[in-house]
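Here is a tokenized protein:
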Amino acid sequence: MAKMACASHILLKTEQDAKHIKTKLDNGDNFAQLAKKHSTCPSAKKGGDLGEFRKGAMVASFDKAVFTKGSEDKKYLGPIKTKFGFHLIQVLYKT
């Protein structure tokens, strides 16, 4: 089971906003560009890049989504609700 992951995300205030951006992703828009333009997280400056983190380091629902088996095989995950808002997550790799 993976203990580390590297991911990017787009943090949005509402589920409606997240669904709107999800549609853009489904239509082939670039994840990092959308993160820079729309994410409310400071990581937006880096295209949503959160870098590498340990299992348990993120809030529970975010952590569960990232570390679920096969999550790295999906184009992106979400929207995932946390106390911060709604996340669209791109799992880059897990180790």
